[in-house]
Model the fold of this input.
Amino acid sequence: MIDALALPDLPPLAVGALAVLVALGVDRAWGEPPARWHPVVAMGAYLGWAGQRVAPPMGEPAPPAGKLFARGALAWLFGAVVVVAIAFGLAALLAEVSPCWQALALGLLLKPLLAWRMLQGEVRAVEAALGESLAAGRARLAWLVSRDVSALDEAQVREGAIETLAENLNDSVLAPLFWFAVAGLPGAALYRFANTADAMWGYRGEHQGRDWTWAGRWAARADDVLSWLPARLTAALLGVLGAAGRWRELYTQAGRTPSPNSGWPMAAMALALDVRLAKPGVYTLHPSGRCPQTADTAMALLLSGRVVGALALLAGAVLLFIVAKAWS
Done:
């Protein structure tokens, strides 16, 4: 059967679409691979090692800002080149096999660069922990966010979980798939490296005892550039599926966050659910919305699942169109 479907002239676009379906299917069925085989874990290990060498400890004399910026940029570029080179090499090796096997292998390699099932599970875990106690909910949310959770009330914990879901719907699902569509496996790998670097280095000041004001600036800006269009596409999909007709409000609300990108999917989610989402002392999205309840977390997961389903349908439609055209 596989040989029968392995059309030698199947174009790269069809191979890519099939690879996306494989990646999403594997993610749904099995979730994340073991940590020792996970490329994002390896990226994080490198960034952790390099970060100790590029960012000065707080309270110690620091080199000039330009030197710190250069250190961070060079360390980021070195890691990015290695990641892209490995991805390019693997993709080049697969170019010699039949299209169906190529799509299967590409899908398996693409899967660790996206994480929809894990994201769902983490958000559900916060809601389940809130059902036990506020302290348990705060502790579980602390796994997902860098903010201080010690003084958050129940609604604020839930807001943090829904914000994380919306932001990472882009960072962990749509953006890797977008860059895979644009530049294949190297594009998805580069994006995932940039997003991981931003999560570990992209702070405006102290983080884990080190000063990232200048050392992490390149990483933060690189992620801003690579996430710019995917974040707005994520917001558009959330808008079409849940907040249609509120585009002017979306534009206004999205600009309230310090990040040029994360506000878009978060604002779209807030408007779709008609709830307020806020980070205390930093921003408030859709302030006229109500406080989120347990049912809103479930609805946020449902709406996000529809976005992922729409991406799968799009990939399937592309594949069917190309295959039908090739067989006609």
Q: What stands out?
A: Strands lie at 206-207, 210-211, 277-279, 283-285. DSSP finds twelve helices and four strands in the chain. The longest strand covers residues 277-279. The two ends are 20 Å apart (CA to CA).
